[in-house]
Amino acid sequence: MLSEIFPKERLQEFYHDLTSEFSPGELEGYECLFMPHIGHGYKAAKQKIMFVGKDPNGHGEGNLLKLNQCIQQQSTADKLGKITERFVESDWANPGPGKHQSPFSQFLLTFTWGILNNLQDLPTLWSSKAHAEQVFDSIVWTNVLKTARRIGENDFVVDRKFEEFHIRRFKTLPDEIKILKPDLIIFTVPWSWEKTLQRIWPDMVSRPLLQGKDTAVLSGIYDKALVVRCRHPQGWPNAAKASFYREIVKRLRRT
After folding, report:
1. Which of 136, 181, 211, 249 is the most buried (most CB within 10 A)?
2. What SS3 state is found at 33?
3. Could you tell me which residues come within 8 angstroms of residue 249 by beta carbon, excluding any fewer than 6 positions away?
4. How far apart are the first and last CA of the chain?
């Protein structure tokens, strides 16, 4: 599926455009392109859920492949996808009490498990490995921007010039949605990105779902998918998170 979204020719054109507009020094520190992570059983999953982040904040750590090397090696989507898969599966491995996962992964996994089982409250524990595997199969994890640059020990950013270039020349999200056909799309990107999202995906029109931007908004139905905007899970108070979660489960039951 990755090669359908990112055919070799599309990546080669992007690499060429990068070298035409940026010097190797300007690209220094950027991680390799982080491909969408697609669950192994995604095609057959009964409920397909796509989570969309702003950019891969350190997701490429430890893979020893940087953006400049991607360009030099003309890395394919399949090769990049294997790097993404190693990161995601190491972060999601052995979910359960006391296991270390990033807050974003905890949100993806617990939220998806609850949706798949029509739970009214956020689950706090995993009951079996089989449950976790069911969740993995239902998830696509992707980002609007496919790379970020390290600026400190734990901080990653995308420079404004690079962000603008990326959006103009590598606007892949509409194609990802068209090919992967999720039933539910959850955006966890900053509210300041409203105009940027409209440029990337002009068909998306936001309207209130719950009161206040501290919870979430329902953007409507796009290509048969329920589309939701919300804050990054690290920024949510528990009460708002649970209210939003229950509302999504209700709406999914009606669609």
Report:
1. 136
2. coil
3. 114, 115, 118, 119, 120
4. 26
Query: In sequence order, what are the residues at sequence separation of 6 or more whose Cβ sits closer than 8 angstroms to the Cβ of residue 1?
Result: 38, 42, 43, 179, 180
Q: Say what the pTM is.
A: 0.82
Band the pLDDT of 54: cuts 50, 70, 90.
Answer: confident
Residue 22 · residue 28 · CB < 8 Å: no
Q: Which of 142, 244, 238, 247 minimizes the C-alpha distance to 189?
A: 142
Run of H or E residues at 132:
helix 129-138
Which helix (H) or strand (E) segment holds residue 227: the answer is strand 225-230
Give CA–CA dist 185/148, Å, rounded.
22
How far, in Å, CA of 115 to CA of 106, rounded? Answer: 14
